[in-house]
Structures are given as structure tokens and as C-alpha cells.
Specification:
Blueprint (H helix, E strand, L loop, with lengths): L5 H9 L5 E3 L8 H5 L5 E5 L5 H9 L4 E6 L2 H13 L5 E5 L5 H4 L5 E7 L17 H10 E11 L2 H12 L3 E7 L14 H8 L5 E7 L3
Helix pairs in contact: 1-4
The protein binds S-adenosyl-L-homocysteine (SAH).
Amino acid sequence: MRLRFVEGAKELIQAHPKYIINNVDNKMIDFRKLFNNNFPIHIEIGMGKGKFIYELAKKYSNINYVGIEKFDSAIVKALDKVIENPLKNLMLVRMDAIYLKYIFKEHSIDRIYLNFSDPWPKARHEKRRLTNHNFLEVYKNLVKPLSELHFKTDNPDLFNYSVEEIRNYPMKIIYLTGDLNKSGYKDNITTEFEEKFIKQGKLIYKLTAIFKEA
Ligand code: SAH
């Protein structure tokens, strides 16, 4: 491991503004200008060490990817990958998802990925779950109509909760499985957490939903 300490991580982040935005002041970011093209924008919220979004960006060069993560210690692992092999369609943003609406323009995003989001099992932490209806409301204002939300988890409680939240919202579930690996779903790209859970023999749940106009 290159960097174990968050102190070193902060310096590494500051040294690479071309690849990572350390969004401490929640300024609006013009991603069109930043990527310098009109390709669709897909974001992953809580990308951790970035395996998933890095592989997507490598595979689909005509889509722009934004990887969002709140912890320095995780995002520097993604930054290491980018420094080693830069991709011009991938930007990392270190920030908490609660500030998303301050940095993305309304209806500027074409797809959202949530992978193995923290389950926050206690009822009093429900609002922190990234599929809570308050977050869905934020996402809806940031995406273009009919954009897709892709969500994967190993946690059945979080999955059931998310299905309920989505069903009670102007969204439509267009794909759902309780066992992704047996489902025949094509082109799945695994995340770091997913690899770990598959090795432990856990089931992977996935859903895809579209945002409808309310
Ligand atoms: N998607 C990765 C990591 C999953 S762990 C994978 O599948 O391997 C969940 C990650 O989401 C953690 O790295 C955590 O720091 C991040 N996260 C949780 N809540 C967040 C929030 N509100 N804003 C940004 N990142 C968040």
C-alpha cells in the first residue's frame, strides 16, 4: 500500500487537481467544460477505491465518469490508479454526497451508480442511507428525465428498504435480481466490496430503476 496515513493522502490529493477535485467549499462544477465535450455523464456515489468506475471509464471512452467518495483514505487508492494510467473521461471528487446539489447543475447527469452503500442499519440513521427518499429527491433534480439508477448490495435489509423507497417515489424498477451472479446479467463489472463478498459466498442484489417525471 502506497499511503497508509490520511495526512499523506491529503497532500497527494492536493498535488493532482487535474484528476481529483477536493471539493471543500462546495462550488458548482462545470463538468461539460471540465471534460471539454458533450458526452453523457455517469456518476458513482461512494466509489471507495474506484475499481468499478475506473474499469467502466476504460471500457466506455465516450461516456464521462465522475467518482465521488467522502474518505481521503479510500479515494487516494482510486487516485493511485489514475496517476498510473490517466483516463481523460474520469474525474474524482472528494466530497460528501449530501452536498451533491451544490456541485452539479440540475439535469446534468445521465446515470447514477450506487455500489455497496453503507447500510446504516439503525432507524435513527435512516436518512444517511443513500437510497433514502431525501437522496432520491436530490438525484431526481440532478439527472435528466428517464435516467437510470443502478444499485448493488450484499445487504438484504438495505436492498428491501431501497426497493420500498424507490417504489414509493416517481421511479420505476426495470431490473431486479436477488442473485446477480446466477441472473445471467451481462457485462457486470465488480467492485472491491463485491469481489470480497463473492469470495465469502454472499448473494449480490441488484436493481436498476428509472426516474420518471413526477
Ligand atoms: N463502492 C465501493 C465502496 C463501498 S463502501 C465498493 O463497492 O467497493 C461504501 C463507500 O461509500 C465508502 O467508501 C464510504 O466512504 C462511501 N460513502 C458513504 N456515504 C457517503 C456519502 N454520503 N458521500 C460520499 N461517499 C460516501
